[in-house]
Amino acid sequence: MRLKPKGKYGFRRTLEYLNGGTTYLKENVKTISVHYRTNSRGHEGLQRFWHEKVPQIQYKNPKVQIFSQKNEDPIPLVKVYFGNGTRTKLDVEGKPCDKILDELEGIAGKTGEQVSGDQKLSLLTNPANFGLIGRKCICEIPGQVPCPAKVPLPKAVHAFHEKEEKS
To answer: Tell me: the pLDDT tens digits for 132-148?
Structure first.
C-alpha cells in the first residue's frame, strides 16, 4: 500500500513530481527572487509559478538559491542574479504560470544540447554509475570493500554475538 503525501501541497514532495521538471539553469545563475502579493489581481500566475514550478526548478538546480518576498512589492517580479554581478528583472504581471516559466527559460535556461552534454558528463563522473561506464562491480572503485570472490572478508564479531556464545 502506497502512502499519500500529507499536507496542503503534498504532491510537491514526491519524486515523480520533482523529476517532471525540465528547467535546467545556466551555470552562472546564482539567485532567483520572486516578488508577489498574496491578495492582488495580476499576481495569481506568479503565485501558481511559485507553488508548482519552483520546487521542480530547485530539485533540478540545487546550487541555485531561490526565495520569495511576499507583500513587499506592488508589481509581481522575478529577478535573476548572475555570477558576474548582472541581474535581470522579469515583469510578469497578469501572465500565466507557463508563460513565466518560458520567459525564465529564455533568459536563464540551458539549451537542449547543453543539458544533454551535462547529463553525459555526470554519468561518467558519478561513481554510483559503476555498471554504465565499463566497471562490472562496485569493488573496482578505490575505497570500496573488495569482492569476497577475490579477497576473503574479515570475520565480523559483534558484542551481542559474544554475549550469546558465553551464556
So the answer is: 555 567 676 677 777 77
Give the domain CATH number at 102: 3.40.30.10
* pTM score of the predicted model: 0.63
For residue 31, give the nearest of 65, 68, 77 by alpha carbon: 65
Buried b (16+ CB within 10 A) or exposed e, 88-114: eebebeebebeebbebbbeebbbeeee
**148: helix, coil or strand?**
coil
Residue 46: name the closest of 7, 17, 89 by CA. 89
Residue of 28, 126, 154 lying closest to 81 (CA atoms): 28
Domain extent at residue 28: 10-115
Tell me whether residue 123 is in a domain.
no
Question: Which amino acid, 79?
Answer: K
Instruction: Give strand pairing partners of 32.
Output: 66, 80
